[in-house]
Amino acid sequence: MANRLQLLLASDFHNLGPQLQEEVYYEYYNMVHGLIVYIIKERAAAEDIIQEAFIKIIKNKPIFDNEVKLKAWLKLSHGTPPLII
Prior knowledge:
By secondary structure, this protein is an all-alpha fold. The protein contains four helices and no strands.
């Protein structure tokens, strides 16, 4: 699977096809899952947090000029817009 998070830089998530949406979600999931499970210590709660955060992310994503800034925001923001980009 290619780096599908890049699609969030150029596309509205809802304009992507179902297969690409799933790939973007699972790339995000794989990026944050281990850390969230480590912090929460409960897999079911971690799953809920990941899903809720992803929904917030696709609704509130600001525009970024590169993938590094996007990934940093994804890891830290939990879907809330940053104060400074």
